[in-house]
Design a protein that fits this description.
The protein is of the alpha+beta class and 376 residues long. The chain is 31% helix and 18% strand. The chain has eleven helices and 16 strands.
């Protein structure tokens, strides 16, 4: 069995066993954390931080978690809403006047957070993703693909710029700065939106699925939001694995897809949502501010993902749990009833149609949570 490092409560022995099984099954490396009441009951890691499997995964190894980043950017908006600085029911143009172009006057802030704004596609060059002003200007000029609020379509790359620019207009800070100052800093969380160079040595670069290389492409058929095959007319810009592994990607503000952290930091931050807005004596939201995130904004077929989904304000809704996953397998799930968060972070990609790792980890964690309820 693969060697697993870290610590865990006895009720949660199924979690490190599940991680070891993934590593024994061919994964390079990963980490898992389960937090209850804002405290870790599981904090484990194992495997290797490089594709050649020569560098052991360390306690402080971090990875690009791709779309798990969306939950962090959503939290920035929810904090502002709870402070009364952002109204989810206001037109986006109240904060970002240029956004009213091309028939978007009626787009509301909540449409951005719930993937119903009609702006799911990034159609600019990849290099423009690294230029905040250019990226947001492009989106401000775009016409929506459907009547805002009438349908949902996963805003794979665009959501972060849309929500992030509203955050910037209100606070004067780009999302990474606001997140660092107002969320990660107070919590002591090792999660970054835009990664400074001094952390590069800790990054485990993404490893493509077997038989794939760094030209592996994100797309709806592969689990991250392009509605047509890359390269065909009208298709969004193809994002390749090599893009996510680049220095430019790490430095950039791409608040839907370029967050860097480990399972511990993901679970710590999202414990704010599981615990009524307060973790470790730090209050970031009121209980009502947390509840706002779970209010259903859309339920039905997502036009981009091609599957039924229920969207809250920045989070997917799955029964009594809430969260989201990223291209490549990283996952976070929040269960307010148990005041629990389960986070799984990996740099080992698998083909999405065959990837059940996040579910495997969640099911292992639920064994422990049920034990806690029984003891309680």
């Amino acid at each position: 069995m693969a060697d697993i490092q870290g610590s865990y409560d006895d009720l949660f022995t199924a979690v490190p066993t599940a991680l070891a099984a993934l590593l024994d099954g061919g994964d390079a490396g990963g980490s898992v954390a389960v937090f209850v009441d804002g405290e870790p009951v599981v904090d484990v890691w194992g495997g290797f931080a490089d594709a050649a499997r020569g560098i052991p995964w360390q306690r402080d190894t971090i990875v690009n978690v791709w779309s798990v980043t969306k939950t962090m950017t959503a939290l920035c908006a929810l904090v502002l809403a709870d402070r009364g600085e952002l109204d989810p029911d206001a037109p986006v143009a109240r904060y970002w006047p240029q956004f009213a172009a091309a028939g978007k006057e009626a787009v509301l802030v909540r449409h951005l957070l719930s993937h119903t704004a009609g702006l799911p596609d990034w159609d600019g060059p990849v290099a423009e993703l690294y230029d905040w002003q250019a990226a947001t200007a492009r989106l401000a000029a775009q016409a929506p693909r459907w009547e805002p609020g009438s349908a949902a379509g996963y805003h794979s790359l665009t959501q972060g710029f849309l929500v992030g620019e509203v955050v910037r207009r209100i606070t004067g800070r780009i999302p990474g700065e606001f997140f660092a100052d107002e969320i990660a800093g107070p919590l002591g969380a090792d999660f970054h939106l835009g990664l400074p160079a001094e952390h590069d040595h800790r990054v485990a670069l993404a490893v493509p699925p077997p038989s794939r290389d760094e030209d592996y492409i994100a797309g709806a058929a592969r689990g991250d939001g392009a509605r047509t095959a890359p390269g065909t007319p009208g298709a969004p810009t193809a994002i390749r694995l090599r893009d996510g592994n680049s220095t430019a990607w790490r430095r950039a503000q791409i608040p839907a897809a370029s967050g860097f952290g480990n399972a511990r930091s993901v679970a710590l931050v999202q414990s704010v949502m599981a615990c009524g807005g307060s973790v470790g004596g730090v209050r970031l939201l009121s209980p009502a501010g947390c509840d706002r995130a779970w209010e259903e904004q859309f339920s039905g077929e997502d036009r981009v993902l091609g599957m039924p989904i229920s969207w809250g304000l920045g989070y997917g809704r799955f029964g009594g749990t809430y969260g989201w996953g990223g291209w490549g397998g990283s996952t976070v799930m929040i269960e307010p009833e148990s005041r629990a968060v389960v986070a799984y972070v990996t740099h080992q990609m698998r083909e999405p149609a065959k990837d059940t790792r996040g579910l495997d980890i969640l099911m292992a964690a639920y064994d422990g949570l049920q034990g806690l309820r029984a003891d309680g």
